[in-house]
Amino acid sequence: MAAAIQIINKILASGDHHAILSLIKGLRNGIVYGAKVRFPHALVMTFLFKSDSLRNKIIGILQATYTHSKNLGLFVLAYKTLTLLMQFAQNEKYKPQSFVAAFIAGYVIFGRYNKVNEQINLYLLSRILYGLAQLAVKRGYVPKPKGEVFPMFAAIVWGIVLWLFEHEKDTLQPSLASSMTYLYHDSNTWHNLKDFLLYNKPSKK
């Protein structure tokens, strides 16, 4: 066993087969990162908001963690593989390669609808919109704001989401609509001190 580990360490240190090994390391990192991100999130959200048996809660947490880890690991592997193949075919690295590789891998892996993929895609959407706005300023397509931008950004985001919630609730993601119902509508009803302070749902008379 020790001899085998020494051989593997020599291969890793030599720099040979770096491209292939980087694919394996990318798969590994995607799996580990996915588990680190999803497990605590699923654990907290499940025990806070889901009413089910302990067994079903644990199964749900493990399934969400597995899906996130597997998909992120496979995406990293697919993306790095495709970019390496395009660089090999074109003998050079070009900017469009990253988009094309991610487009294909994203379609195949994150294009399959499930709750985990939906959350990941929505998370990325908010980040890229923010990034594209900054890129527009950086490239000079939009003049650089003279004052503080973040307060206006926050005002627009919260104004739109509350308007949608109050008037077009069915257009919001179910988990968001549920959270906002808890915050803004369920807080309008109570019958006594018990359901005013301790429980969300009003107690039956």
Describe the structure.
Keywords: Membrane, Transmembrane, Transmembrane helix. This is Peroxisomal membrane protein 4. The chain crosses the membrane at residues 72-90, 96-113, 120-137, 149-165. One of its GO terms (cellular component) is peroxisomal membrane. It holds the Pfam family Tim17. The longest helix has 37 residues, at 54-90. The chain has two domains: 2-144, no CATH class; 148-205, no CATH class. Helix 2 (18-49) runs antiparallel to helix 3 (54-90). 77% of the residues lie in helices and 0% in strands. The radius of gyration is 24 Å and the shape is flat. The chain is mainly alpha-helical and 205 residues long.
What is the topological layout?
Layout: H1 2-14, H2 18-49, H3 54-90, H4 95-110, H5 115-138, H6 150-167, H7 174-185, H8 193-198
